[in-house]
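FAQ
Q: What does a multi-component entry look like?
A: The components come first, one per line:
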Amino acid sequence: MNTSDRISVDLQEGVDTMSYKEDVRMIKALADENRLRILECLHHGEKCACVILEELSITQSTLSHHMKLLCDCGLVDSRKDGRWMHYSISEEGKNRFKDMFSHYLETIDSDGGCSCDKCE
Amino acid sequence: MNTSDRISVDLQEGVDTMSYKEDVRMIKALADENRLRILECLHHGEKCACVILEELSITQSTLSHHMKLLCDCGLVDSRKDGRWMHYSISEEGKNRFKDMFSHYLETIDSDGGCSCDKCE
DNA sequence: CAGATGTATTCATACTTGTCAATATATCGA
DNA sequence: TCGATATATTGACAAGTATGAATACATCTG
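Then the predicted structure of the entire assembly, as tokens:
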């Protein structure tokens, strides 16, 4: 994926600000210690909420809050089974994240000179 | 890089909480619309602060704040040239970021069953 | 149906963070 | 040396967020 691929997503109106906002929302979903722990918890497959809760030092309502953020950004899938909620990494979400990060972390070889009209 | 690679980084004491904290710090460095714009600005090579400033709708002091965060987390290198500051993506930092994200976004095939002793 | 249990929601609170104005610092040019 | 210019720092403030207690909701079990 290259720059123009992503920019083309942004149509006339929202000026491309939309894409940044959504990307920030995705990134923020990862920007928390406990949510990183939760993701590691899900590395090996689906887990139910009570198992995740035992691995963390937080209350149940806080876990529910974190799971909501992870699900809302598309990185985690949820499945309700009776009283229990099962969570797992979404393959599709995972790939969307990888693409996004690749985009911002890429560098494109060029002359590398500063295009500033003042300095240099 | 696999899970044990990263966990081995955390020695006895800080209990591995250190690694999470550092990872969160890195992720938060990306979790802002303007900082994402700055990174795109640097895709094609080194740029001086005044050029970056022209591309964003923020004041100079705000830009300075953002650049500090990006540099402190190791993703951006800075070079002072007289009055001007030149910024560029750090290749090494970029790779550290990629490794970290790969870690949290990986999934390891296994049975996938829930290890909970209550449900199912 | 009634109590127990797993999860979600609401609310209040402490903390973090993005922003700008004002100011400080550093460097250049005359 | 003195003013201009580029960047950094400080301080204040509004907005966002992680947290837990209390409570609501849903589902199971007897």
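Q: Is there any commentary attached?
A: Sometimes. For this entry: The longest helix of chain B spans residues 91-105.
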